[in-house]
Write a structure and sequence with these properties.
The protein has helices at residues 16-26, 41-50, 67-70, 90-95, 108-125, 181-187, 229-239; strands at residues 7-12, 32-38, 55-59, 79-84, 100-103, 137-141, 148-152, 158-162, 165-170, 173-177, 193-197, 200-203, 207-211, 214-217, 224-226. By secondary structure, it is of the alpha/beta class. The protein has two domains: 7-125, Rossmann fold (3-Layer(aba) Sandwich); 135-239, OB fold (Dihydrolipoamide Acetyltransferase, E2P), CATH 2.40.50.1020. The strands form four sheets. A five-stranded parallel beta sheet has the order 2-1-3-4-5. The longest helix has 18 residues, at 108-125. The radius of gyration is 19 Å and the shape is elongated.
Length: 243
């Protein structure tokens, strides 16, 4: 079953720096969950199966085994996105029916395009986890030991990251919980919330207007939320119905 709000990806590349790039780019996509990076092709193949990865970012030139040979052994359910510094491998890759081909160094816009293509392919070919079965609320840790607070999605205006904790803003109420904004983002449904800044997630349904790089909410007069440069393109694609 594919959960469109949490698509799992792994990276297989013999260069640790290349894996870090994929991890960073994946962190910019709300619905994409990076579950592992492997410099060993054999270990990467094993873990892609074990973790039931939906997308595999696969380098072509590796010392143990050529990526084009390795992808023949990946699970059929995986969408494979090739990553390499050499454009001459593109034809070979597409002859093996991969989802896309990314030429290093990889830009965020090009990465997003490839991931969207993979997501569309996954949703066309696999059963989707019903949105109706997903909870309509969060359970977050409170300020007392063993205390948890139920927060309905519909009540959330926006979420503000503050170092190692977040403030969940619901009208005049601010709920503080010890979790990072990245961890909380992974728990939220991507069809209802959008990241606009490294320290801010907004409820899409609460947006009243957008002026330049400022988001204004219906229920919070005078509260301007800034769209970060890193998130600007993906945010406007969401607002224009392209994501």
């Amino acid at each position: 079953m594919i959960n469109p709000a949490e698509i799992k990806c792994v990276a297989i590349d013999d260069e640790q720096s290349a894996i870090k790039v994929i991890r960073h780019l994946a962190s910019q996509v709300p619905y994409l969950k990076f579950v592992g990076g492997y410099i060993s092709p054999v270990e990467g193949l094993t873990m892609a199966r074990t973790l039931e990865a939906d997308i595999v970012f696969l380098d072509i030139q590796m010392p143990e085994i050529n990526g084009l040979d390795l992808l023949k052994h990946l699970p059929a359910r995986c969408c494979v996105i090739l990553t390499t510094a050499y454009s001459q491998y593109a034809i070979d890759g597409f002859n093996l029916d991969v989802t896309d081909y990314l030429l290093k160094p990889i830009s965020l816009p090009r990465f997003l395009k490839a991931v969207e293509k993979a997501k569309d392919q996954l949703l066309r070919t696999a059963p989707v986890t019903s949105v109706e079965t997903q909870p309509a609320f969060l359970l977050v840790k409170g300020d007392a030991k063993g205390k948890f607070i139920k927060v309905d999605y519909r009540d959330i205006d926006y979420i503000e990251g503050r170092k190692n904790y977040v403030a969940i803003i619901c009208g005049t109420q601010s709920i503080i919980t010890l979790i990072t904004i990245k961890e909380l983002e992974e728990k939220l449904p991507a069809d209802r919330f959008v990241r606009i800044h490294k320290s801010c997630i907004v409820s899409i349904g609460k947006i009243d207007s957008i002026e330049g790089n400022i988001v204004r909410l219906k229920s919070r007069a005078g509260s301007d939320l800034v769209i970060g440069n890193t998130y600007r393109e993906s945010f406007f694609e969401r607002m224009n119905g392209k994501k």
